[in-house]
Amino acid sequence: MSRLLVSVLLLLPCVAAAQDPEAVVRKLFADFWNGAEVGSVEELMAPATMAHTPFLGEEGRTINPGQARAWRVRMAAQMPDLHYTLDSLWTSGDTVFVRGMAAFTHDRAVDTPWGRAFPTGRRVEYPLDMAFRVKAGRVHEFWDRADGKALRRELGLR
Length: 158
Known about the structure:
The chain has about 160 residues and is an alpha+beta fold. The chain contains five helices and eight strands. The radius of gyration is 18 Å and the shape is globular.
């Protein structure tokens, strides 16, 4: 067997994992949202990704990896211990559905679409339901159906 063929056969599992929609979404949460690897968004997100975030008042806005990275850096400054827990993931074709929780300590002011939430010192937790459409190893579209009412209530912004 030639060395080239052996090299290709050894790389196939890596290529397959990179194309697996669920693996891409898990890596996005582990490295980008829960980790410190904000640069990983370049490899995990398409240059023009359609974002559907109605709980933030935005439905169908195109964002790029640089905008996502800036958002993550801003959130890390306001909520340094923000962590997403994935309770369940299931895949249908190129779409991955996620149910989970987001949590952080509200020890700093947080800027929200509903106004500035001043620190309460409490632990904030809110459920989220998300879906990601993945093609060629990158997220091309996502839907975030986080519970905006629960988040506002937790932040004291009724």
